[in-house]
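Before a colleague's protein record goes any further, I have to sign it off. My question to you is simply how this chain folds and whether the tokens agree. I do not need a full report, just your reasoning and any doubts. This is what I was given:
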Amino acid sequence: MPAALTPFQDALLGWGDEARRDLPWRRTRDPWAVLVSELMLQQTQVSRVVPRYGAFLERFPTPAACAGATVGEVVRAWAGLGYNRRAVALHAAALVCVERFGGAVPATVAELRCLPGVGPYTARAVLAFAFEADVGVVDTNAARVLARAAAGRRLAPAEVQELADGSVPPGHGWGWNQAVLDLGATVCTRRSPRCHRCPLAAGAVCVWAVAGGAEPDPADGSAGVGNGQPVFAGSDRQGRGRLVAALRAGPVALADAASACGWPDDPARGDRVTAGLVADGLVATDGRWLHLP
């Protein structure tokens, strides 16, 4: 017989069954489609990924299709998602899948970590969401839920992953992790958590809620809980994005790189950003012109 669920597991799984967001990557168990979604979702809002996910998979439905394209083709299809280095990493990961794993996405943490762009979180996400493995998936949202609800204190890196793995109800890896991530994204938010809507607070199984939400917040300083992203406006990242967007339309003269970045009066900054893009494999040059590789 399967082990009985704890009140914590029962409350969260029940909430997930009713409140789980209907997202396109949750309708598949195809490992490549799941991997694509996870790389797209890195530091990019769900609302920006949803309208682009299906079109990207239509263009690159398998690792072989992606590996057979140029980096530039993948970068063009990545338009609107930001952090274009992820497109380069996905293309490189597809090549590894073809060259080392017979065109398939591998199914172990160690092998998944061999893929460019795949870290500890993404490897476990693919295992849980494509292969339905009973592993804990820890991102900022999950770490916040675990620190507040399960531990009631700040957690070190090893503790977060150990607690995440130990919390998964056997046989429920897919649904459990989706519920944890959704709760952190929509209810157990970083600022102004909606405890009145939380099944764990209502069921008196959230350690932090039982303690009256006392300060300090257990999520603050816990491993895996981010403190927000740097300002985008005026940053080098914004200039990089502008230049790549210009290159999607066609080559740009090297002398015009700073203007394409949005800094016509700062050629040195344009040169620095251009050099970084070339080093990252996002941009190629013949010494006079810049283009997508």
